[in-house]
Sequence to fold (290 residues):
Amino acid sequence: MAARPSDSMKLARVVVVGPPFVWLLLFFLAPFVIVAAISLGQNAPDAAPPVAMAGTVRNYAFLFSDALYVDAYLSSLRIAAIATLLTLLIGYPMAYAIATAPPSRRPIFLMLVILPFWTSFLIRVYAWRGLLSENGLVNAAIRSIGISGDPGSILGTEWAIYLGIVYAYLPFMVLPLYASLEKLDRSLLEAAADLGAKPWRAFLAITLPLSLPGIVAGCLLVFIPAVGEFVIPDLLGGTETLMIGKVLWDEFFSNSDWPLASAVAVLMLLVLLVPIALYQRLRARELGGR
Fold:
């Protein structure tokens, strides 16, 4: 007996939508529930794993009472926000240049943007240690052009972290910006020019507002992983640079305090949900206004 059309549509919907939901359930929701449950436990160094389930929020209370963790969260948010702004300032002209380039050259430029992904992230970040060290190529270039005789080492400073984040996450900013700018209706710019608008005025009135979805998407793609970044602060930052990713690593692997490390991770995820929720609300408002 042949299935009715409505049943076929329901089956097709389940086949299409089901796998992503199963994926999220297995690899996001289930691990998060386990981590959240561990965060409510107590440290048990003699047990394996070193956790005793207690159902207490003492770990969360400790996070808010210790200035180290509060400062780590605030420092991570500040560094991620500044790095995201720097990435936007560099990525927007790049995306605009690619979107306005001849169509035959755009694939080449896009390939150059994503080319760093062909090399391991860890190797790329580690290579910056050699470039930014006291005897590295960056300091040699500064000495050769006479800006400073002894510029010192950029490595181990907060500037090295900014440089590393901008370099590592620049493609995540360029690609969504390019997608927005490439769809821009050029006839609007021509109409603005015919009406006497200067190029910068047309950019502020037409290009920038229409590329806002790409700006928001790119900023989220850079800001969210930058907040929890561990590799870049550990390899390029100094010991005085405080980021929540390093704190999480120390609690988990150095101190073997799984419940406290899990509480740090859960709280970090909740903090990151705020910009995501704001973005979804903005998108829902835009779609509702159409």
In short: Strands lie at 42-43, 51-52. The chain has a mean pLDDT of 87. The longest strand covers residues 42-43. The radius of gyration is 24 Å.
